[in-house]
Structure formats: structure tokens, C-alpha cells
Specification:
two-stranded antiparallel ribbon, 2 helices, three-stranded antiparallel beta sheet, alpha+beta, 82 residues, 18% helix
Length: 82
């Protein structure tokens, strides 16, 4: 499963980090860290995190069906530019 966070939309509400802490985390107050290749066993938590994002900044390829998720992956850190 591949995650993409639009960091231009992300406002740092951290709902994703609350609902899926193994995948998302806040670094400081304005910077999100996440694993773009989330493990399959996080599927339910990720679905909740995607749905809970107030600005709809998170998309997840493969969340609604395909079982071809890639476990592991790198962690990305980025700032939303504030």
C-alpha cells in the first residue's frame, strides 16, 4: 500500500498520527513524518486516518482492495512550508 501526503494541504492537525501512530508522526509542530509504504496490517488504521484528515491531504493507493502492499519502506520527513 502506498501513501501520499500533500504537504501543501497538510495543516498539522495530527489526526493521522493519533489514528495510525506506527505510520504517521509529527516532528515538531508543523512537520509530518510518515512511511509511504505502509504495512498491510495497518490497513484499518490507515483507512480511518485517511478519512479523518480534515483537509483531505492523504491518499492511499491500494487501500480499497488490492492486496499488493509493500512492507517496510523509508520514512519521509517534510515541512508544510510555514
Amino acid at each position: 500500500m502506498r501513501l501520499v501526503v500533500d504537504l501543501n494541504k497538510c495543516q498539522g492537525y495530527a489526526q493521522c498520527a493519533f489514528l495510525a501512530p506506527d505510520v504517521f508522526a509529527m516532528h515538531g509542530e508543523e512537520s509530518l513524518i510518515y512511511n509511504p509504504h505502509a504495512p498491510e496490517e495497518q490497513r484499518e488504521r490507515l483507512a480511518r486516518a485517511v478519512a479523518a484528515c480534515p483537509v483531505q491531504a492523504i491518499t492511499a493507493d491500494g487501500l480499497d482492495g488490492a492486496a499488493g502492499a509493500t512492507a517496510g519502506g523509508s520514512v519521509q520527513e517534510a515541512s508544510d512550508g510555514r
